[in-house]
Structure to design on (256 residues):
């Protein structure tokens, strides 16, 4: 029957297909390169996991060279520290010098200035240069002349006088030296006149009250300049010592 044949054809491929699928499966199984897992024996340990931590640097070998190198570095560091300390100490010393030297200089200048400014006091007794001592005698010229009796100087002591003119007080002294000569000089000198300390007599010498230099009486009116008493022009007429007013001003005004 046509219908039966159709049924037989329809079912026949189905069986063949079934068989072919089974054969195909077997073929794929036979052609696969996978290996079957081998079961782990009982009691076997799992292999340890690999250590993935970064490696630490290898320490330098501790031989003699390493020790010497370390010692040299320590010595260099010690020398460097000492050098820096010395430099700092030197800078501090230089700073103190820069401050101290000008300060000392200023103090010295101040002492010298104030010790000699104006009419200084506190001089040794008998100096004979301070008006407060009462040994200065004021003179008044007559007809332009100042006259003294030669007998006033026989004691061979220095006699101090002052002459007022134009707001100035010009000081001078007269004495009879050891050689019997009447001498006169301004009570000042070219060096110490700014201190206005004048001179005082010790024996046969005139002594500067500022610098302490000594001058024999026989050199008065002879040597001038430096710390020598400035000479004062004078003349001897019979029994009188005569000093002209103009000579007092000309010889002594510049010192007062």
């Amino acid at each position: 029957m046509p219908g039966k044949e159709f049924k037989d054809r329809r079912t026949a491929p189905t069986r063949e297909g079934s068989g072919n699928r089974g054969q195909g499966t077997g073929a794929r199984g036979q052609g696969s390169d996978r290996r079957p897992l081998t079961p782990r024996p009982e009691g076997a340990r799992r292999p340890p996991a690999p250590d993935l931590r970064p490696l630490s640097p290898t320490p330098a070998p501790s031989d003699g060279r390493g020790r010497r190198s370390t010692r040299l570095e320590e010595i260099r560091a010690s020398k460097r520290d000492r050098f820096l300390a010395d430099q700092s100490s030197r800078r501090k010393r230089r700073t103190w010098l820069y401050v101290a030297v000008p300060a000392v200089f200023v103090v010295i200048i101040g002492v010298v200035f104030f010790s000699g400014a104006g009419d200084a006091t506190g001089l040794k007794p008998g100096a004979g240069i301070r008006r407060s001592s009462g040994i200065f005698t004021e003179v008044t010229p007559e007809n332009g002349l100042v006259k003294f009796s030669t007998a006033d100087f026989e004691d061979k002591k220095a006699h101090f006088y002052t002459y007022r003119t134009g707001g100035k007080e010009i000081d001078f002294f007269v004495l009879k030296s050891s050689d019997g000569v009447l001498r006169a000089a301004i009570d000042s000198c070219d060096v110490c006149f700014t201190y206005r300390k004048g001179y005082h007599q010790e024996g046969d010498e005139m002594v500067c009250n500022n610098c302490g230099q000594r001058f024999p009486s026989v050199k008065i009116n002879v040597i001038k300049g430096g710390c020598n008493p400035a000479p004062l022009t004078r003349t001897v007429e019979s029994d009188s010592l005569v000093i002209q007013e103009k000579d007092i001003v000309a010889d002594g005004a510049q010192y007062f």
The first strand starts at residue 136 and ends at 138. The CA atoms of residues 29 and 36 lie 12 Å apart.
